[in-house]
Design goal:
The chain is of the alpha+beta class. It folds into 2 domains: about 55 residues; about 40 residues, no CATH class. It is about 45% helix and about 10% strand. Helix 1 packs across helix 2. It is globular, with a radius of gyration of 16 Å.
Length: about 120
Amino acid sequence: MIRVLRDSEEWGSPHLELLQSNILEQLDAENMLCDLGLEADALERLAWALTANIQYAFDVRWAPKWVPKGSPHIWVQWDQTFARCNECLAESPALASENQARAWFSSHRVIHENTE
């Protein structure tokens, strides 16, 4: 999982960490597409500032509309596959395939079935 630090402390919320990661990803893409020439440190500080302001004004919960309830969010990054539980936001380790990611989620999901 991407860990984002705010003044040397963790955000304390995986939802905010995901928000900050998405903001940073979008800023980085805009920086490249528009040839803005912003350094990585400047992008990180801008992403932190935007996330902090959103945190103060909104109740942020990661809830991607493309992932059906009870299903994992699965993605590939640098030839490695990952899965994220939409209930607790736990992430799998890097895996070799989507099938392995689904298997990880199936075994992880048991902890939620025991608490329902």
